[in-house]
Write a structure and sequence with these properties.
about 450 residues; 12-stranded mixed β-sheet; 4-stranded mixed β-sheet; CapK_Type1_Caps_Biosynth; ANL_N_sf
């Protein structure tokens, strides 16, 4: 048994068998260097709540049509105006949802505490840090129940492919993949799945003792589900693993069709492209039969807004804007996601068509590729309000900084030195009217399209 004094706090319901699973994953001869600790923090009575929520989500219909909020929205708005400081300060709740002024990531980043309801149990509040692609670093409030409920929507999406997760005690259920210079890595168990194993690993060679350990470890774990972003999944495809998962889930960034096909052919299993946001959780899963990304959350209402903040005409593209969600620590009213699509009705529910979400971009320097997350980490210590990085077709780099951050230019260039060496990086100012795409590149191979 570990000597970590916080171990029991992280795993309140851990059994001896669950501890054996944790030890197996952490101390396997080919295991990576696990740099962090995490846990499910679920109490005994909450495990039943998670299972009940999964059954509810699996069987729930999403029957609303665009432009016509479902009945639950009115009560949700009233509750937010009653319990959430940000909305309570606005006065009485409006009679129509469209009369609520939209909010954005910048609003949350400015003071996210004002968006947390008064009745949230602060003693068990958790926070997740996210950098995103908008230049607005964000802390997302959450709770052990909220974190555990993510799986319900992944299972709903998997069910469309005929995959029902079955792994339980003594088996590894899910391995989450990263491929970054620095990555939060840990092992855990999933109480709602009989304490099946859960591991977050970094495929970057720096986190492994020997080059061949990555494939050996993944084969030994034999996870039922593998999840990651397109950059880590592309690396996974090249490792030479001989044991295939039952399904692969791509999250965080847009998955190109070419890479999806490569993964399907390589591993012979379904590959799901799930549109997910830290602020909202899993929103939709790409479904060829549905013609786009099929919505996953029964209590999430989606609008498409134009640049003027008004509802876009039916069938037109605009900004994906959401109301509702399952994170009771962060109820959202007309939250502008920064992603774009049109909205259509399908036989299985509303569909986001031609979704333009966040796209994986990598940069070349010092003879190797760097994930855009590595760039974020390199600049994290600097108080930059906004920044962009672009790599031209000839490899030249341009770092864009907001006017209030231009004085930090030399420090920013120095911070990027370990990634790009002596390669010249030009500085430019981001004007106030720029619609920022944080990471862009014209360099061949940067899009990770497969």
């Amino acid at each position: 048994m570990t000597e970590d004094p916080l171990h029991r706090e992280r795993f309140p319901t851990l059994s001896a068998e669950g501890q054996r699973m944790i030890d197996f994953m952490r101390h396997h001869p080919h295991a990576p260097i696990y740099r962090n600790h995490s846990g499910n923090r679920l109490l005994h009575e909450e495990i039943a709540l998670v299972r009940s929520f999964e059954r509810e989500v699996a069987g729930a219909a999403i029957g609303w049509t665009p432009g016509r909020p479902p009945e639950w929205v009115q009560g949700f708005v009233a509750g937010a105006f009653r319990t959430v400081p940000f909305y309570r300060a606005l006065g009485s709740p409006p009679r129509r949802l469209e009369d609520v002024a939209p909010v954005s990531r910048a609003d949350l980043a400015a003071d996210v505490a004002r968006f947390v309801p008064d009745d949230v149990e602060t003693a068990r509040l958790m926070v997740f840090q996210t950098t995103g692609t908008t230049g607005h670093p964000l802390v997302v409030p959450s709770h052990p129940l909220v974190a555990a409920r993510y799986a319900a929507f992944h299972k709903r999406a998997l069910g469309r492919t005929g995959v029902v997760p079955m792994h339980g005690a003594g088996q590894v259920g899910v391995v989450l993949l990263g491929f970054q210079q620095r990555c939060f890595t840990y092992v855990s168990v999933s109480p709602a799945m009989g304490e099946s194993g859960l591991a977050k690993i970094n495929l970057h060679p720096n986190d492994w003792r020997a080059p061949g350990d990555r494939a050996r470890y993944l084969d030994a774990m034999a996870p039922e589900i593998v999840a990651g972003d397109p950059i880590s999944l592309r690396e996974y495809a090249d490792l030479g693993c001989t044991v295939a998962p039952r399904a692969i889930i791509s999250v965080s960034m847009a998955l190109h069709d070419g890479l999806r096909r490569l993964l399907e052919e390589r591993f012979g299993c379904p590959v799901l492209d799930i549109y997910s946001l830290n602020e909202v959780g899993p929103v939709a899963a790409h479904d060829d039969a549905a013609g786009g990304h099929l919505l996953l959350q029964p209590r999430l209402y989606v609008e498409i807004l134009g640049d003027d903040g008004r509802l876009a005409p039916a069938g037109e593209r605009g900004e994906v804007t959401v109301t509702g969600g399952f994170n009771f620590c962060l109820p959202l009213l007309r939250y502008r996601t920064g992603d774009y699509a049109s909205l259509a009705c399908g036989p299985h529910g509303p569909v986001l068509v031609d979704l333009q979400g966040r796209r994986p971009v990598r940069f070349f320097g010092r003879g190797q590729w760097w994930n855009n997350v590595d760039v974020t980490h390199a600049l994290r210590a600097l108080p930059l309000s906004r920044f962009t990085l672009h790599q031209a077709a000839d490899g030249e780099l341009v770092l864009g900084l907001a006017h209030d951050s231009l004085a930090l230019g030399p420090a920013a260039l120095a911070a990027l030195g370990p990634l790009f060496g002596d390669r010249r990086i030009a500085l430019r100012a981001i004007t106030a009217d720029d619609k920022v795409r944080q990471y862009t590149s014209d360099f061949a191979g940067a899009s990770q399209a497969g």
